[in-house]
């Protein structure tokens, strides 16, 4: 991955520097409104990362000790970590092989009276069938981990439209980046107001609003909260990036279409759009056949050929931090983690680059599985 940044972003950040107001302020407010509108949400609350956004969502819902939150193991570990921040227990559910997203049947199998929430991840930008997940959850709230999904579509609408709560990432590996940073979107005005207080130490009036009032304003602190703010420097970059997003998504989809053509002769399965949505292809992963060399050997062969690949999505339940945590049977998660890898995809990738990647992958697949040798 390589972020698409240019002179417009540099100029926007420089303007904020010259203004003298570099902390959370007017640019953050502008970015919140623009991003929320782009995903069909009524309110946006900018935060320091998607992880802190997920934590705030869980805190808002009152998740705490003794509670369980159902999450996919097939996700970056931050999804489960946010649950632990609340002293609650992540319970791992399995995913669907085609998309890597939550399998509603697996979710249903682990729901208990202690389940306080379910977190549905739009993995790698692949739109999750959130409606299917909600259908098995009943009154249990569903939080959308949309870290990778800015620009993805679900049933003809942007991912995040109609979400109870959705958290987004603007890390440099995402299409839209602010360096670090994130956003929570919701249609609930009261929740949005409380989220804004929670991200800023619980202040009844934000620092920006106090200064803008021109009067003496004494804030109060009604609850223990956090410092999860975004800066105006980041928001200025985000506003420029948001304008680039449709073009970036179109370019990603063009690159992935070409990858599919080039990969057709190989015995691999590229991730594909589900019938109910389209991906922004934040990540493009392929599943290797069972008879192929180990992913680690294939990645080493790619690296030797000058191609930077990456292992597929991790299985959090296999990490030492989550040893022994409760989970449903996870055969699909374990299969995908063992047999998938991510290929390079970024705006500047050329057709020649893609041919080089696919040729290197073809050569790597000829390795002897047992030894990794030709």
TrEMBL record:
Single GO MF descriptor: transaminase activity
Record-listed N6-(pyridoxal phosphate)lysine modification sites: 174
SUPFAM superfamilies per UniProt: PLP-dependent transferases
Coiled coil regions in record: none
InterPro entries according to UniProt: DegT/StrS_aminotransferase, PyrdxlP-dep_Trfase, PyrdxlP-dep_Trfase_major, PyrdxlP-dep_Trfase_small
Cofactor: pyridoxal 5'-phosphate
The entry's keywords: Aminotransferase, Pyridoxal phosphate, Transferase
GO biological process, alphabetically ordered: polysaccharide biosynthetic process
Active site residues of this protein: 174
CDD domains listed in its UniProt record: AHBA_syn (cd00616)
Record-stated family: Belongs to the DegT/DnrJ/EryC1 family.
Name listed for the protein in its UniProt record: Aminotransferase DegT
Gene source species: Pseudonocardia hydrocarbonoxydans
């Amino acid at each position: 991955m390589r972020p698409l940044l240019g002179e417009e972003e540099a100029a926007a950040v420089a303007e904020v520097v010259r203004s003298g107001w570099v902390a959370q302020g007017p640019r953050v407010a502008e970015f919140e409104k623009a991003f929320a509108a782009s995903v069909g949400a009524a309110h946006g609350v900018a935060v320091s990362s998607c992880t802190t956004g997920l934590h705030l969502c869980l805190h808002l819902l009152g998740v705490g000790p003794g509670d369980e939150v159902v999450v996919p193991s097939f996700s970056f570990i931050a999804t489960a970590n946010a649950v632990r921040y609340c002293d609650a227990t992540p319970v791992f559910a399995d995913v669907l092989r085609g998309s890597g997203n939550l399998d509603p049947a697996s979710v249903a199998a682990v729901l208990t009276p202690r389940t306080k929430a379910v977190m549905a991840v739009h993995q790698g930008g692949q739109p999750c069938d959130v409606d299917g997940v909600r259908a098995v959850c009943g009154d249990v709230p569903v939080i959308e981990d949309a870290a990778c999904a800015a620009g993805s579509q679900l049933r003809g609408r942007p991912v995040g439209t109609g979400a109870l709560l959705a958290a987004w990432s603007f890390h440099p590996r995402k299409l839209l980046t602010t360096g670090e940073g994130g956003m929570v979107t919701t249609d609930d005005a009261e929740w949005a107001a409380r989220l804004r207080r929670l991200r800023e130490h619980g202040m009844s009036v934000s620092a920006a609003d106090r200064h803008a009032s021109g009067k003496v304003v004494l804030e109060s602190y009604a609850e223990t909260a956090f410092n999860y703010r975004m800066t105006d420097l980041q928001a200025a970059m985000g506003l420029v990036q948001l304008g680039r997003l449709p073009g970036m998504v179109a370019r990603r989809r063009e690159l992935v279409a070409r990858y599919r053509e080039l990969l057709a002769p190989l015995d691999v399965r590229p991730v594909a759009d589900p019938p109910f949505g389209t991906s922004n292809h934040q990540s493009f992963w392929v599943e290797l056949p069972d008879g192929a060399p180990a992913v680690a050997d294939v990645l080493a062969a790619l690296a030797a050929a000058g191609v930077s690949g990456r292992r597929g999505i991790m299985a959090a339940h296999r990490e030492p931090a989550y040893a022994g945590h409760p989970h449903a049977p996870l055969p699909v998660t374990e299969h995908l983690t063992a047999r998938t890898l991510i290929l390079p995809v970024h705006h500047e990738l050329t057709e020649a680059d893609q041919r080089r990647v696919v040729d290197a992958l073809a050569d790597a697949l000829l390795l002897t599985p047992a030894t990794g040798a030709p």
